[in-house]
Task: structure prediction
Amino acid sequence: MKVQPYLFFDGRCEEALEFYRSAIGAKLGMVMRFKDNPEPPKDGAPGCGPGNENKIMHAEFTLGESLLMASDGYANGKPEFKGFCQSITTKDDAETKRIFDALAKGGTIQMPLGKTFFASSFGMVADRFGMPWMVITQSD
Result:
């Protein structure tokens, strides 16, 4: 069994993928746009309305060793991420700071990066899309 995050950016998927690529080194894999769907859209299907042909129906990207999937979903322009948090574990404090600072650019710091009883560096941030992240340095 495998569990992987599937993130819905509600019309901002391409922007998010580019942000994660340039900010934290995500590697883009497969991308399928709604116009590439070989089957006609079903009534009420997410994102399939007129004007959304170039929106992303499905994408895959990797961060380090992890595969994440993403979509524009209904493409309404207001992504909401509630009830979960992506967690990135790094090998050293410098990498933790670099990633935390990159995710915080245009976002909201929820817990400033700092030393805790469980890690030499830990912080929480919601990026510019509202995606919540925890960034932590691996304990030895």
Q: What stands out?
A: The chain has a mean pLDDT of 92. The two ends are 28 Å apart (CA to CA). The chain has two domains: 6-71, 86-137. Strands lie at 6-8, 27-33, 56-63, 66-71, 86-90, 108-114, 122-126, 132-137.
